């Protein structure tokens, strides 16, 4: 999909949403007062107690939660439903956000799932782009959907990319993230920061989906994500603590031998003697108390006795 086509789709969705909202307001106005003058409410907006909202926020309309797959060229109600679900992914109401996320996931992958072209459009032009939005809680909502889709697409037991979606390989999907969060040209400062944060959240989705340490895939997936995290942390120092935290999260998925492998990679990438490196080593030693290291690793890891004199300086960075 070209940028022009995407812009046209966005305009059409905005117009559809406006029309739907206008119809809803008209309906509510018509039903606001009964024949005897008493107030009534729209059944779709009513809570169990008769209020418009519960303490957790408004209940989503049944139309949005309908078990129905997305289509390639959505029109009318289908377009309104899709646009509203993605709009709710940015909601600050956690309940609404999670319900919308579950509805989007089922609308893409339930049953036989959508065609590859449809899933690719949603990944590329909806989800990865949404990570770069600074609106409300958008990154939280979009991350939930992406983590689950990546898990089913690229990890066991489904491994959907193997048979059903052969064009959505790990390399291609990661490439979508990097393209949609690419920073270039003379961008406003806030837009640039949103893109960097989007890239960070996207890489974290790959880690949380638990698809980086699959034996039959080898270490290439993890190596590439680690390289991108370190590159991002080095380029934007203010994001380095968050990048380090994502690496630390990955350790929970590993056995002792692989934890040692990751620590050695951090030495080679120059992250051992950094505040983030100290934090990662602490997590590693807590997870593997009997962790032993060879002489080379002992020389470099920040908590080795020979390096204690440097530790205060490292933590002041």
Automatic annotation (TrEMBL):
Location(s) in or outside the cell: Nucleus
Entries under InterPro entries matching the protein: DNA_pol_V/MYBBP1A
GO biological process, one term: regulation of DNA-templated transcription
Entry GO CC: nucleolus
Compositional bias ranges of the Polar residues kind: 29-44
Biased segments, Basic residues type: 1-11
Record's keyword annotation contains Signal: no
Keywords: Nucleus
Molecular functions (GO terms): rDNA binding
Region feature (Disordered): 1-59
Protein name, per record: Uncharacterized protein
Origin species: Colletotrichum higginsianum (strain IMI 349063)
